[in-house]
Amino acid sequence: MKHLRVYHNSIRSVRQLRFSHLGNISAFCLPAQTASFRRIFESAFSKRTMATAMAKRLEGKTIVVTGASSGIGRSTAKEFARTAPKNLKLILTARRIDSLQELAKEIKEEVGDGVQTLPVKLDVSNPEEVKNFVSSLPVEFQDIDVLVNNAGLVKGVAQAPDIDLADINTMFNTNVTGLINMTQAILPIFKKRSDGGRGDIINIGSIAGREAYPGGSIYCATKAAVKSFTEALRKELISTRIRIIEIDPGQVETEFSIVRYYGDKSKADAVYANCEPLTPEDIAEIIVFAVGRRENVVIADTLIFPNHQASPGHVYKKP
Predict the structure, then answer these.
(1) Omega before 161 cis (within 30°)?
(2) Using one digit for the tens of pLDDT, what is the confidence trace for 295-308?
(3) N or C: the chain end with fewer CB closer than 10 Å?
(4) What residues are labeled active site?
(5) 245 — alpha (psi -120 to 50), left (phi > 0) or beta?
(6) How buried is residue 294: exposed, middle or buried, by Cβ count under 10 Å (0-12/13-18/19+)?
(7) Which GO terms describe its biological process (predicted)?
(8) Is the CATH number 3.30.300.20 carried by domain 58-313?
């Protein structure tokens, strides 16, 4: 009889729940002997959204973003902070420390003290700076969980044999050697963890690494190298829980074209005229989404175009 009464009390509680329009479950006074039913109902009816799941997965992580002073890197740092505003550490790196400090200030004003930011002046093309990067961090920031290899650039539109040697070296030292050196600096931290290692490496590639175009031979070559390095790294780490993720944007309006044209804004603006390129925020959302997946889910390779683009050379512009 005792068990029968518990059963009937539980059924009565369910009926109350049905007609409550799913209000606050804690408002129902379920009998003490039906505590187990309370737990079941609370679990079944509690709201779980993708946003809350992502925030939970990111909580407590320490994230490095290279090239964070502008463009995709800057937007990525902000998107991480907005997604997990209660408990996160962000290491913001770039050559322009003033811009990083301003970014740190903006993040604090927007989300509060739950996100700790550490601006670090770093030129990824300088091997010595990269080598000393981790050891120079405060101890509480050294246990890194996520590396976003975003720093990269393009210089000029010259074709062989007229490509400037300085531009060649700058692109390879930043886009390829810098990315590889950063990966090698952070990877030992990941590999010390259980199951052969844990952590995320996100390499920002480009459509240029998949399809070369005239006037971009060196830049395309650097991004093709990033793609090959990324794919090999993923295979080398297959026995671990380390996720290797590549994100390849198409046309994105950042300082990219201004740097390409050596500061000539009129030429840079012409690249985006009469069309709607992607924004840095578009790519940042995808980066954070990829990192915020369940650990067993690897978004290994993603190509993102604006609606008007189908390849580097297939871009529709309004008349």
Answers:
(1) yes
(2) 999 999 999 999 99
(3) C
(4) 219, 223
(5) beta
(6) exposed
(7) secondary metabolite biosynthetic process
(8) no
